[in-house]
Amino acid sequence: MVTAKRVWDALAEIPDPEIPVISLVDLGVVRDVDVDGDRVHVGFTPTFLGCPAVEVMRDQMTERIRKLGAEPDVEVLSEGWSSDRITPDGRRKLRDAGFAPPTGRAPATLLQIQTRPHPCPYCGSTDTRLENLFGPTPCRSIRYCNACRQPFEQFKTL
Amino acid sequence: MTETPRDTKGARVTGSPVPESAQRILELADDELILGWRNSEWTGIAPFLEEDVAFSSIAQTEIGHARAWYELAAKELGTDADALAFDREPDEYVCAPLVEMRMAEDWARTIARHWLYETADSIRIQVLINSVAGDIRGLAEKIDREEAYHRMHADMWAERLRDEPAFREAVDELWPYALGVLSEGQRPLLCQAVDRDEVEAIERGEHTDDLRPLWEEMTMVRRSVPGATW
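Predict the joint structure of the above. Result:
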């Protein structure tokens, strides 16, 4: 018998395709799980609209639910994902892997980014500077830590 | 060019009138798709590595926004996003002439367009957020939060190049095109945002000579292997 808990547990084992240290559940892209007999509905909110990993995520969830013996229905919801949805556990895992988790509220100006403390994920120093608003994927910026002299990837606040 | 092969399965809007509401969404989608394509032309050749990454990432996000708008329009038109993006004839696209022009490898013109377009785009997105409900509004809000990063990047560069003659000339040249991105009622907001007087706009509808070569390249795979998925 498939239960919502079993589905959540199974989805929590799927790594993010681009930042595999955290799972899709840690990332907060799974909005809700609904079990009706052997049918499982998952509400899914992708991170950035241009994220190339969206199809991979959807396919992996579909496949994982099918393995539980249920009929999956993964629906992409129109309501937006926000970086606030990354779980505390997810934030810790990101930091441990050298990705600075998102900070504060979504910025509207460059000044807000430049004046807000962005701690280095390696040494914790807030003496860091923005190198590039854009990074290897739409969700990341590049910063540099003046204290430990390491560049690092900063998850954008969205 | 040679005869265009056609996917007979793919629903197309060609030949049938497009309702006004879907037309407005197609304008947003076409602008983002075509400008996304133009911005991607900087991949590998930007003046320095940070900008190579920035323009590639901005292009990716814009094409993502185009896809989301196309999906919304496709629901109304009974087709799919790829058919709208790739199966129309060049003169059926409703993008603004501003986004069509090939500007690689002219950095000052590219930044002038980037700054004018992002400023205009944020105005029409705000208007949407304040005037519609449902899926369109939800999508506009999401896009607006992502576009904030484009605007910061554009503003930073406009500030940096502000006194460069090449940049100032490019802004003068592109100003009538920038006004044409917006509907008439929205234009005063753009004038206010960039502190310029309104002039006669170069309107959406006519296309520049740069669109066709872009279209031929962009739709080449789709036209040569109709119905292929990848």
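The CA atoms of residues 109 and 170 of chain B lie 5 Å apart.
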